[in-house]
Every structure is written in structure tokens, then in C-alpha cells.
User: Fold these one by one.
Assistant:
Number 1:
Amino acid sequence: METLTYRGRAVTPRDLETIRQLLTTPGISRRALSWQLCEVWQWRQPNGRPGDVICRGLLLWLHRAGYIQLPPPQWTTHKAWRPRTSAPPVLIDTTPMTTSLRTLGPLVFHQVRRTPDEALVNSLLAQYHYLGYQQPVGEHLKYLVVAGDRPVACFAGGSAPGALGIRDRFIGWSAEARRRHLRLLAANTRFLILPWVQVPHLASHLLGRMAAQLSSDWEQVYNHPIVWLETFIDPARFRGTCYRAANWIVLGRTTGRGHRAPTKQSTRPLKDVLGYPLVPDFRTRLTED
């Protein structure tokens, strides 16, 4: 039998036999099978929760390849699947806020992932960010920044891309080290200062505050820290001045080929890539095998 590998995990004949044995359980559903398999394999995320989503992806992959026969899904829909890219609008005070950073008052960062305020952040991004809102996949956090009782900014951060040439060369890690330590990287996927907020130097100040807080919050939710941040900037729209002012490092520009592109032709807009180390020894921590 050929060696099977799914997302870096080898699937042995013994693994297949374990799955087939579980499938003999009368009335077992795909969800129940995934949870039982996670328990047998002790397959858990860094935060201790079962790796159910990845496990279900593995089971479906094996089913489609003909190695196992899954039970019929218990729920189906005729609607085409599409990611959640919008959120219901909200009404908030849009009175212009034109002041200085000194007189703005205390700024409070609220980590809103899995809180009632997460919907507010989703909606503000959908309404006012030029890229709109898209529900992240994988580990991610969201922030709402308020001054007094008024929102002034939003952040969203998620898992970093698996392979990014200019970043990988800058870090200097091997393919094995990248596989082991990629979870220690995060991407700043959204940064929004609400359009009625006009405060000089606010953006770079918020970037510094966010970088100082993110790792500890990530560890609290996902049981591991973050040692490196990165972001993508569309040079046709922005220069990334606030990131540069906050001491982010300009790494270079993407190739525009996207994820796992079948050719070497650019098919997407080129983006500037900027990075920000959260610890002085980030290379040591990311390159150890």
C-alpha cells in the first residue's frame, strides 16, 4: 500500500483499520466518528480541544479516495456553500472624532473572540473596511478598541500562510521547522480605524499596543504564544506608513501566484509583506527542529 499523508500526518494501514472498526458501530454518524477517532488517537489542538475539523477533513479525504465508506451525511443542502463574508449592519454614533492622541483619553482593547461584542466587530469590518468581512478559518482573535464608550478601531488576526517565500527566507527556517512552528506566527488580516475618527498618529500607536497584547491573549485562548506577526498591504492603495512608523519590517513583495498556484504566472494583485518580531530571539525559536 502506498504511503498516505494528510496535512503532514502519515496514515498507516493500522490507522485505516482503526477507522474501519469504528465504522462498524451501529448508527454512528460522521460527527460521532470524528470525535471517537480524536479520542482514540489523542488528536487535540494546542488548547486541548479535539481536532474535530481536521479529523473530519481527513475522513472525507479517505472516503473520496475509496479507502473507507462513510455513512451518509445526516444533513444536506442544495444551496451552494460560500464563506461568511458579510455581517448585519449596526447603528453607532458616527459623530466626527477629531482630536489629538493626548486628549483622546484612555484606549481600551477588548479581545472579543467568543464574546457578545464579536458581532459588532464583524459588522464594523463589513461596513467600513475596504476588504469587507470574512469569517477566518483556524485560530484567530478579534479586537475592539474603544475610547470612553465609543468604538474607534478594530483588529482581526489569524493563522499565517503556510508558505511565504520572502518571509521564510527572512526567518531562515527549514521545511520541517516551519511545519513544527508555523502556529507561532499570526497574520494581521484586518486593521480598521473608523472613518469618522481623525486622530494623528493613532494608527501606529494602536499597532504597538496590539503587538504588546496579542501573544498573551493568544496563549490564553489557544495555549501557545505568538512570536512573529505579519501583514499584507496593497501598494496600489496604501504605503503602509503606520506600520513602518510602528517599526514593522518591510520584507518585500509577493509573487501574486496565490496558494499552490499550478503555474508561475501572477494571477493576483502583488502585495507588500511586512513583519514584526514579538520576541528578540524569534529566529532561534522558529528555526529549532
Number 2:
Amino acid sequence: MKILVTGGAGYIGSHTVVELLESGHEVVIIDDFSNSSGEVLDKISMITDKEFVFYEGDVCDKNFLESVFAKENIDSVIHFAGYKAVGESVANPLKYYRNNIDSTLSLLEVMDNNKVYNFVFSSSACVYGVPDTLPMKEDFPLSPTNPYGYTKLFIEQILKDLSHSNDKWNIALLRYFNPIGAHESGLIGENPNGVPNNIMPYIMRVATGQYDKVHVFGNDYDTEDGTGVRDYIHVVDLAKGHIKAIDYLNSNDGLSIFNLGTGIGHSVMELIKITEKVNDVAVPYVIDERRPGDIDEYYADPSLANEKLGWKAEKDIEDMCRDAYIFAFKNN
């Protein structure tokens, strides 16, 4: 199959491209490098020793997308492209609504024009908001706490409406929990442009001496050590979930929703301490005020993905912290 991956040079996208290529799929990547680097493409080639097609451009641009579809015989699409920082979305919501929703609408319209109906969407556990109980299941009420989460929720609704309107569409909504870690080669990993908005690359820049200390946003949450608890999942496990989703769409019609997580919660302080232990490094930190939009704790019930996709996270939190450090050290 030939699969279009938007945002394929990004963190999750690049790891998914590697898994797709190693599974025998043909891959077409679109990326505008707004939060990635062209060097990632070279590293994908080094890891896989396989060819792929790349187009630099904006997924909001329908004319650009039409030109790509005209050249490539695309069978399925995995859509990663979009802004993803919770804090930035609170400070600049219009940027997030415009980009994340426009890009998806443009892509879906061009897919429809070209009769391509298999679609995997990069959603988020943010759509659940503050859960009444844990673990979080796919049928929980949806109530995001920040604009980033609302962009994911609105796009999910668009996709549900699209699926109801036309039974040709086969759609998988993958609700990610918190991807961290890096490819075992150390060649690709999470390396955002500028100051990281996510916790793990910030920890890694402190661990490798680029920054003085980690800013831990809040230690008064209702958790065991007072810092926020999340379901961290190794990015390679997450990438493999997309391969399973593509395979699933080939034999299952309609729209399906899956949590991709480990089902285990870890705190920010645990991440710091485990990083120190497994890599024999010091990670100084300071406690700051909470960030708007963050919640105390969440972790997944991944049993539906286990059952329907045949997918299960295999790597543990020590693997995540070790692989993330190896990548950060090699790319310091």
C-alpha cells in the first residue's frame, strides 16, 4: 500500500514512517518543517535503507495537496500535521483552531476528490478532559480543558459526521496518551524547535547540560508526590499502533476509536528520578506554578486496542527514559 503521512518528519510521524517502511509499505511524506527538520528524512533513510517520497508544503493548502494526490497513487492517509502544545494553545487559541481544523478539512476534501477513504487521525487523550474515574475508556464523556484538546474533539466530530454521511469512509481515531522515548538507533527522537513545550525533551536538555534545571509546573496536584501523573507510552510502541490501525481499516468499515496507552500512570517527578537512575545523570529541577489547562492525573484503558487491533505497548518507563537520553546525548 502507498500511505500518505502528513507531518511525517515530526516526532511521532517519523517513527511511524520507519515502522511503515519496515512493514513493506510505500510512504509519501508531507511536512512544512514548522516543528521538525529536514535532517530527520536522512535519518529515516539511514535506519530503514528504504526509499520514500517527500513533499515540503502546508496541509492547509488544497492546491498543493491536489498536486500531491495527482502524482501519487495514495491508498490511505495518516494525519499527524498540526500544532500540539497545550500551553501555547491557551495563549494563542486562534492559531490552533485555524491550523489544526483547516488542515484537516483541506486534507479530507482533497481525499474525497481523489476517492481515497482510509484515514487514521492523530487524536489525543486531551479530548476526555478531567475524568470522573480511571482508567479512561473510549466511551467516557468528552470535555477538553484547553483549545488544543478542543481542536482534536472538533475534528473527531467532523470525522464522525463524515463517516455517517458516506459509508465509503473507513476512519480510525487514535487517542494518544503521552509519547516519549526515541528510536533505539538514537537517530530520531523528540527534538522540538526552540524551547520544548513537552516535559521529556526539557528533561533531556537538562540531563545533557543544555539547560540548568527542569521547570516542574505544580507540586500540589492530588497525586502521590504532588506532581502531575500521565500515561507515558514509548513512541515506537505508539508508531506500531498506526500500522495495526492501517491493517484494521483494510478489513473493517466505518469509524473506530482506540486509546493508545500503557494503562500505567507515572508522575513528572518519577520521570526525573528514573532518568537520573537509568542514565547515571543529574537532573536538577525547580517547582513553578501550575500551567493553565493541566489536570491532576490520567491513564488509559488500552484493552480495546489490545482486542481489536492486536496491539499492546511493550516497552516500559525505563526503556522510554533510556532511549530518550541516548537520542538527546547523540544529538546534543
Number 3:
Amino acid sequence: MQVQAEETLPIAPVHSEVAASAPAVKSFSLSTVATIALGHLVHDAFTSFLSPLLPLIIPKLGLSLTLAGSLAAFQQFPSLINPVLGMLGDRFSLRWLAILAPSVTGIAACLLGLAPSYGALAVLLLTIGVGIAMWHVPTPVMVARASGNRVGFGMSLLMLGGELSRAIGPLVAVAAASWWGLEGIWRLIPVGLAASVVLYWRTRSLDVKPAAHVGGAWADAWLELQRVMLPIAGIVATRTFLSVSLATYLPTLLTQEGSSLVEAGGALSILMLAGATGSFVTGTLSDRFGRRLVMGVVLTCAPLMMAVFLSVQGWIMAPVLFGVGFLALSTSPIMMALVQEYGRSKPATANGVYMALEFVGGSLITVLVGALADAVGLRPAFALSAGLALCAVPFVLLLPKPRSTTA
């Protein structure tokens, strides 16, 4: 007997640049979106293990900061297949990839502590990267299908799960390493397996097959998509310096300056919790006030808040760090909503291209920040990253204006 609890919410007036593609639904499916968001929380908790464990991995394997930064690049490298997965997703349902992703990622992440060499770590991180691609290409399309005309709100919930995972994941990783040692975190593998089972059961009735009207020439689809993708590429190439500095190197910076591993992991969790809050707020506000306005405000304020963080000491660092995370890690729902709206003829392909830009850009910039930190130190590297992030603001002006507004 199939039981599917389904809560629907009435569609509120929205501000939408372009109607999303996909088989339209008449209402917002809270249970479906919440299930995928919770799956995002579990999946991405595993992907956040590397950063808080780096202070243990670096001395164990004798790594420089440049090599440590390159580990994150291995994790992001498989995102190059995202456009291919997206093209497949516009022809076939990729729901099974999303279902299996928490298991694939979870197993690889929980074996990081057993890796005996840099090469073994690279293989495990490449496997995590494959799991990341399996998850992040189909799930935004699935959420868009279940969100009706409230795509920004749906993406906010999806990213809320992801950002909460980045707050919870470091705490879980540090706690597991404290209880069982770095080599004992493999005991968390059943969590990923259980998440796959729940996702299978709870999304079994979700229609994720490509709609009959979705099609057209790929060249025409790209001409439509590039109006939003080119400015987004500029935003990713600049604001990512700030986000990867914080997400990858904050624990290392704090431990170098005297904090304990637990304190550094706690600071990273504050940062990620703030990012989760910001993601929920900004995506929701963009439905009402417009994507460009909200994006511009966030990208202007984030580097300024980072400058404040670098200038304070003591207890006040915690609330300032929350402000940094709220702003610096909150733009993804807006960009994902834009991509789904403008990629209406090829939604999965559009998301695959965006995810490739996001992950490949992130991996390259992570290595650049690591090399910069080796050259001038982590704190100056953080300051320079904030300055580069401010260069994202002009690209917001190049984002396409709304085509229609529903009052």
C-alpha cells in the first residue's frame, strides 16, 4: 500500500523573470521539496568532511597548503561531467542518480581517515566528486518540478538543507574523529545508506520525466541561456574567492592562530549555519523583490563584512562570522532559480552547465587561494579574496531584467 503524505501551499504572488519549464504543478509540494532538502543535508554533510579534517590530514601526510588545497580540487573535478548528465536529464529521468548519491558520497567520505597516501585521498575525493555530480544535477530540476511558481522558495529550501549540512558536517566529522580517531569515521557509512533508502521511498511518485514540450535545438537553447549564464560565470569567478577561503581554510587559519580543533570546527559550523539562514532568506526574497536587486545587495555587503571579521578579536568574532556566512554563502538559490527560469527548454542541461561552472571554478580558486596563502599567509589571502569578491557586483548589472512581473 502506497502512502504519500502531501501538503500543498497556495501559490502566492511572485516576481519571476521567466516561467520555469517542466511539467507545471498547480501548488507547492512541501513534502516532496522537504524530502529532497533533507537528502541534501545528509549528502552534503559528507562532502564537508574534508575541511575540518585537514588539520589532522596535513600533518599525517606531510602536506603543504597548496597540496591541501588541491585535495578540494580533486573533489570538484568530476563536475566536468555535469553538462553531460544534464543533457541526459533532458532525455531521461535521473532520479536514481539522486537516490544513490548519498551512499556513494557517504562511503567515500567515511574512508578518508583510512587513506594512507595523497594518491589514495585523491581517489576517494574523486569518488565523492562523482557523488556530488549525481546529486546536484537532477535535484534542482526535481525541486523546480515540485515548486509551482515559487521556484525561489523551493530553491531556498533545497539550499537550506545543503547549507545546514555544511554547519552540521564539520561538527559530525570532528566529533567522530575525537571519539574514534581519524581512522574510525568509517562507522558513519550506514547514515548515507539509510538516506538513499528514504529518498527512494519518499520520491517514488515524483514525476521527473522530461516533458514532451521540452526540446528544440541545442544552439537555440544556449542562445537563450547565455543571457543569464555569462553574468553568472563572472559572479562565480569573483565571489567564489571569498566563499572558498572561508569554507576551506577557516579551520586551518584559526588553528594556526591558536584555536583548538574543536573551536575551529565550531567556528566553521557557525559560518555554515549562517549560510543556511542566508540561503533561505535570499532565495525567498528574490521571489518578491527580484533576483538582481537581492543579489546586488548581498554581493556588495559580503566583502565589507569580511573586512570587519578580519579586524576584530575575541568573542565578537562569533556574531561577525555569522554575518559573513549569512552574506557570503547565500547567493546560490538566486542563481539556481535564474538558471531554471532561463533554461526552460533544457532545464537539466542548464543546471548541469551552471553546476560545472560552480564546481570547476570553486576547485581552481581553492588551489589559487592555497598558493596565495603559501606565499603571503592565510590572513592576507583572506583579505585579498574579499577584495576580489567585491568585483562580482558589476556582473549583477549584466543579469537579464525581468520579462514579466506578476503583482
Number 4:
Amino acid sequence: MNLLKTIIQGKLEFGNQKSYDKVYKMFVYRMENYYKSDVILDPEEVFDDEALTLTVPRYVGTNLEKSWKNCVALIEYCAQFAISGEMGAWQTDSGKIINSAMVEPESDKAVVIQFRKGKKLADEKGKEEEAIEALTKAIEKYDKHAQAYERRANVNVVLKKYHDAMRDYNKCLKLDDSVPDAYYGRARIHMQNGDIDDAIKDLELTIKKSIALQPIYWAARRVKADCLITQENFKDAAFDLKLFTNRKFDKDNPNFKWRKEALSTYGKVLLDLEEYEEALKAFDKAFEIDEKTDEKDNGKRLYFRGVAKQKAGKSGFIKDIKKAADLGVSEAADLLAEIA
């Protein structure tokens, strides 16, 4: 039987003692009678009597696929009685995802209905005010709903209500400091305000609170590199960009569309670090990605690749720089004049 790497993390909140006690008893009963204790999680370790939650900060181990499925089924059962939170579970083999599940409360409880409605509306353009109304109702029903604050913050960002968004991100993290999306959203506001040090701190927390199987982990790596570049910290920026550009993303992963730009940025950082051969490799890989590109961006990419070729002592650099000049890149035209 094949053992797979297993990761489980998250929290389900039950809101009142009655629901919590019921879930705990049913968890133990089902674990012993339905699954013969083959569920990975130990109830004594994951149930928090004071917070009235089922909490898994992060479990990492190796387990059979059957054990993982039993565990997910039991978590899904518990989620019927929860009023907020989410629990993620993954199994991988050599880095490839074999099984995955994201479990959230799904019931006829008013707070759950309003949150799910608001979450859905938040993804629909032009429905922002309706989304805020639904999420606010969820918060009014349960004022410790961290996910509702985080989602409402995201909608406020879309509406450019950054003060309200920051307030909601802070409230979310005060209630639950394990929500990576809230750190990421707060970091973007810090960047807009020019508070780069604070942005980097929040992006580092995004990375710490998420795992490499989640898209937000890699988005934080890429954006953190941009912040470091503004501080001319090219060495640390190169570290994040190397990790990002070496990662294989599926087409449905939101990071997929950033591959070309990330490779180009990585190439420019390597130029600043005087690692010319590696810079050239990065630019070549960027050009291998076949996607529609703005002519000006393509011209700049050609210019920097030409510079990398020149610095690395490679032939063909004049051709790249000339093409860049023809596409309107002034730096390329200036460099051509110097060469002439």
C-alpha cells in the first residue's frame, strides 16, 4: 500500500457549547464505529474546549489514501454543525496533488447562508454592494466570523474603500491569525500606501500561514519579490523569483498567467546581480512562453536580453537591441548609438 504525504490545516467554529459538545461526541462515535479509529486526527488534540472549535494548526505526515478519505468525510460531517471557518486537506506524491479538499460549513443556519451568499456575490462583477450587505448580515449573526471580515475587506478593496478594507483585515486577523488571504490583502494596501516594510512583513506571514500547494503562497512570493526590488534588495528578490519561476503551474492556477512576467523580472534582477548567464537563461525561458504580449513589454524584454548577451560575451546581442529600438525602447536606441 502506497503512503502519501498528507497535509491538513484549518479551523471549524461551532459558536455555542451545545453544538460543540454534540460534534465532539459524534466525532468520537463515528471515528470508533464507522472508521475503526483510522482518521488521522486525534480528537483530544484537535478539539479546543475553550474556543469551541475543531482546530488543526498544521498536520504533516504520511498516510494511506483510505485514511485521508476517512478523515475528510469526518471533517465534512462536523462542518454541518459549524457556523464559520474552513479546513483544507491534501495528499501528494512527489509534489503532485493526488487528493485535495476544502471543507466549509454548509447548512441552513442563517449565518452560514448569508456568508455563502456574500462569498458568491463577491466574485460577481457589479454585485459588490449586495455582497457587502450579505457578509455584514453574517457578521451581525456571528461577530467572530473571521472569513466574513476577510471577504468583506476584499470587496471594499474593489470599491477602493481602503480604510474600511484595512479595518476588516485587521478584525479578521485579530479573530484568527492563521488566515493567509487577510495578510496578503493587507500587504497590497500597505504597498499602495508606500509602506513597503510593512507589506513585506505581511507577505512573509502569508507565506508562513499558507502551504506551497495553495496559489496564494506563490502569489505572495512573487509580490514580495516586487517589494524587495523597490528596496534594491536584489539578492532576496532573486531567491523568491527563482522559487516562483521553477514552479510548474497548471493552467487553472491564477499564477499561470504571471510566468512570463516573473521570468523577465528574474532576468532583470540577475542582471543587477551581475549573473549574466543566468539572466540570459531567464529571458530565453520568458520568450519560450507563447502568449499575447504588449509590444512595448516585448521590446523591453528584448533590450534586457540583448544586454545580458552582451555582458555574458554572447553573440546576437545587437540583433536583440536593434529589434527593441524598432519597437520604441529608448534605452535600446541609446545603446545602439553608443555601440556605433
